[in-house]
């Protein structure tokens, strides 16, 4: 039986969803399925003999979500554009249930964050029209993570309080550690997925680092636009956003030839001397224990990978970063991390030495 979490909001497992889809329900009108496959055939594979009718309404991919508020052509989300964000369909007995299906595996490395917006909107809208069941396979990790985020946002609850509150309805919930880390980021971003925040940028870089570690091809399309190219060629989307006024921003130029190598928006901030607390839920790596407050500032800046970094595309674990115009040595990259002079570890790291770049406003 599904557990009631709030008025018109239930949590359950695959059996609960199958039962409602096969037999209908006098209370549930909407189902949010979070399973490793979005296909309704997942139910027949789970238990042979089950056949659930469905009629597709639409499928939405990560790249479809528009790029109107994205500066240059920075990837909007850490998901690849061809990744299915969700599918929506009429399903079940007499096609009476509206089912949104989000493909997500229960793994720590899985990108929950980039699915949250659509899930939370669906829950909110469904509760206005009827009642919604959020389910995954066991009703323990994925569905609980999404409902936790929903409670955090609606009731402005810190992560721990939201989980505690959910446990009052359903004792067995326990999102996996990777999801907990991401929910903590969600809290720190102000109960939203703020893709311009440095928290999100570091998350996106971590996702890229994970795919590097899995041996996936890292090509320049996953990198930020090259700010040194003349405006206009920087982004094919530039004309699509005429309403956005370019405001003055800090630019980092090669000291030798003055080519722009990075903009403020490419910088990944870190708190000097602090470990990776912003995305290490468990193993908080300490900063440098010998560092005292007031020690000298960081000697490097860390940026997201940018398209001029040809040495990164060659696929090595680490290497030099050189100016694409005059070939001056600017810094270093290492997918497994670099320690800043302040003691902080940045992983993965794309580092520019402050002594090799000039800062100006453009
Ligand atoms: Zn530092
Ligand atoms: Zn140069």
TrEMBL record:
Residues 223-244 are annotated as: Disordered. Residues 110-168 form the Tyrosine specific protein phosphatases domain. Its EC number is 3.1.3.48. InterPro entries: Dual-sp_phosphatase_cat-dom (IPR000340), DUSP12 (IPR016278), Prot-tyrosine_phosphatase-like (IPR029021), Tyr_Pase_AS (IPR016130), Tyr_Pase_dom (IPR000387), TYR_PHOSPHATASE_DUAL_dom (IPR020422). GO terms for molecular function: protein tyrosine phosphatase activity. PANTHER family: DUAL SPECIFICITY PROTEIN PHOSPHATASE 12 (PTHR45848:SF4), DUAL SPECIFICITY PROTEIN PHOSPHATASE 12 FAMILY MEMBER (PTHR45848). It holds the Pfam family DSPc. Residues 233-244 have a biased composition (Polar residues). Belongs to the protein-tyrosine phosphatase family. Non-receptor class dual specificity subfamily. Keywords: Hydrolase, Protein phosphatase. SMART domains: DSPc (SM00195). This is protein-tyrosine-phosphatase. SUPFAM superfamilies: (Phosphotyrosine protein) phosphatases II (SSF52799). Coiled coil: none annotated. The active site is at 136 (phosphocysteine intermediate). It comes from Salvia divinorum (Maria pastora). It is an enzyme of class 3 (hydrolase). PROSITE patterns: TYR_PHOSPHATASE_1 (PS00383), TYR_PHOSPHATASE_2 (PS50056), TYR_PHOSPHATASE_DUAL (PS50054). Residues 1-192 form the Tyrosine-protein phosphatase domain.
């Amino acid at each position: 039986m599904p557990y009631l979490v709030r008025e018109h909001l239930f949590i359950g497992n695959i059996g609960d969803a199958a039962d409602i889809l096969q037999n209908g329900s006098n209370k549930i009108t909407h189902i949010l399925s979070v399973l490793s496959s979005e296909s309704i055939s997942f139910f027949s594979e789970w238990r042979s003999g089950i056949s659930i009718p469905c009629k597709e309404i639409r499928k939405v991919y990560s790249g479809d979500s528009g790029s109107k508020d994205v500066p240059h052509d920075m990837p909007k989300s850490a998901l690849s554009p061809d990744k299915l964000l969700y599918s929506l369909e009429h399903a079940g007995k007499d096609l009476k249930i509206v089912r949104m299906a989000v493909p997500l595996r229960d793994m720590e490395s899985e990108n929950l964050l980039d699915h949250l917006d659509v899930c939370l909107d669906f829950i909110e809208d469904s509760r206005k029209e009827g009642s919604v069941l959020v389910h995954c396979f066991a009703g323990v990790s994925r569905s609980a993570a999404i409902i936790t985020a929903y409670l955090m946002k609606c009731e402005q609850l810190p992560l721990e309080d939201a989980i505690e509150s959910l446990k009052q309805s359903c004792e067995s919930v326990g999102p996996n550690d990777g999801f907990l880390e991401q929910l903590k980021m969600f809290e720190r971003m102000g109960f939203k997925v703020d893709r311009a925040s440095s928290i999100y940028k570091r998350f996106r870089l971590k996702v890229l680092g994970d795919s590097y570690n899995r041996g996936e091809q890292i090509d320049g399309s996953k990198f930020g636009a090259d700010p040194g190219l003349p405006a206009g060629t920087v982004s094919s989307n530039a004309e699509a956003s005429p309403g956005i006024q370019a405001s003055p921003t800090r630019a980092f130029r090669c000291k030798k030839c003055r080519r722009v190598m990075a903009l403020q928006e490419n910088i990944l901030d870190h708190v000097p001397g602090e470990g990776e607390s912003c995305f290490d839920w468990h193993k908080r790596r300490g900063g440098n224990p010998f560092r005292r407050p007031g020690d000298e500032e960081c000697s490097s800046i860390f940026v997201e990978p940018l398209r001029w970094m040809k040495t990164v595309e060659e696929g090595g674990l680490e290497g030099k970063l050189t100016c694409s115009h005059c070939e001056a040595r600017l810094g270093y990259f290492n997918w497994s991390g670099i320690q800043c002079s302040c003691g902080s570890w940045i992983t993965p790291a794309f580092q520019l030495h402050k002594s090799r770049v000039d800062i100006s406003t453009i």
